[in-house]
Amino acid sequence: MKLYIDKENIIAFITNRSEDTDLFDESVRMIKRGLEINYNFPKSEIPNNPVLIAWFGKMNGCGVRFSSIFRTETDIKPERPVKSNFYNNYDSEDRCSIYLLNIDENICNSIRNKYSILVGRPGDEMEVFRKLLEIPERTGMMSNITSWADYCPKLPITDVIVCDNYYFKDIDVYDKNNNELIRALASISKDVLNVVFFIKHEVVDPKIKLDVEWTRIKNMISSVSGLSKGRCSVTIITTNRTHSRHIITNYYRISPTTCVHLKENGLKEDANISINSHTEPREMETTKSLIDTFQDIAKSPVGIFGDKKSNFIKFE
Q1: Other CB atoms within 10 Å distance of the CB of residue 174
Q2: DSSP state, 174?
Q3: Which residues contact 162 (CB under 8 A, 6 or more apart)?
Q4: 61-118: per-residue pLDDT in tens?
Q5: Cis upstream peptide for 281 (omega within 30°)
Q6: Can you tell me the distance from the alpha carbon of 72 to that of 70, in angstroms, rounded to the nearest whole number?
Q7: Which secondary-structure segment (H or E) carries 129?
């Protein structure tokens, strides 16, 4: 995961560390475990600022795995002045990034209210990191999940990939679950939501007509999120190349070992589930590898239905 950060945010982060030293230390450890830092200022500014010297001293030493890039005015990211939709043309990796920027408060609030990108002004750093640190990086049992709304972290979201071979296998189970997972994620989105399903071609209930169902799901997303239908997209891809289940969003990946439907799904006692933050380098690499696989599948699907729109998957 990438972190784009302005000089003023580093100064505020260091200056405010006494407000919650534990959170500050945990945030620093998270950064050092593997965030790719993009500094929105030249390296030449470090020797002239004692706070920056202290920051880079803290960023060195044992256990540091991150890489860093210094940007100048010509390649600063995002470009200035920052627009409230600056991420619109960004690729999947930059939509899974953190932006700590010295920008106008009204612009920042507008971006935050869209709930599409993690963003913060000077002084907001620890609150942004707190949200990421609250992602439970642990394995649990599927039987302990009472609802997807309670399980899914409330983090910004623009895109979802659901890979579940048997999502549309049984119309009774499908109707009973009423797209609960998608409803939970749609309730978080405030700007745009693109959902792509990867399912097994041979196991779709004949009573479920995918050329109709994608529209029904899209209408549901619009209703739950309050977004116009033009801001929602649904694509269903059928294939014979997938096996494991995965739910990929901007800031984390969920990997259940069984069908994502929680009700009447014939759940076995040993079915477990894991949720992994993209702040962990290995997990981010796994997600990128999965997206590459899904991209390859999308180039030659058995069948494809819907909008063919995603910031994670490119459609010809």
Answers
A1: 19
A2: H
A3: 181, 182, 195, 196, 197, 198, 246, 247, 260
A4: 544 555 789 998 889 999 999 999 999 999 889 999 999 999 999 999 999 999 999 9
A5: no
A6: 7
A7: helix 125-133
Report phi then psi at 13, rounded to 5: -60, -45
7-15 and 50-59 are packed helices; what angle lies between their axes, rounded to 10 degrees? 80
User: Which are the contacts of 80, defined by CB distance < 8 A and separation ≥ 6?
Assistant: none
Residue 156, judged by CB atoms within 10 A of its CB (0-12, 13-18, 19+), counts as buried
Higher model confidence: residue 253 or residue 136?
A: 253
Residue found under tokens 């965030």: 35
Predicted pLDDT of residue 64 = 52
Query: Most distant CA pair in the chain: distance in Å?
Result: 69
Q: Is 270 helix (H, G, I), strand (E, B) or coil?
A: coil
- pLDDT tens readout for residues 166-211: 999 999 999 999 999 999 999 999 999 999 999 999 999 999 999 9
3-state class (DSSP) for residue 66: coil
* Identity of the residue numbered 19: E
Buried b (16+ CB within 10 A) or exposed e, 253-282: bbbbebbbbbeebebeeeeebebbbbbbbe
Full-model pTM: 0.94
Q: What pLDDT, on the 0 to 100 scale, is given for residue 61?
A: 58
Burial of 116 (0-12, 13-18, 19+ CB in 10 A): buried
Distance in angstroms (rounded) separating the CA atoms of residues 246 and 253? 7
Q: Are strands 246-248 and 139-141 parallel, antiparallel or unpaired?
A: unpaired
Q: What is the pLDDT of residues 26-74, one digit of tens each?
A: 999 999 988 999 999 999 999 999 999 999 988 875 445 557 899 988 8
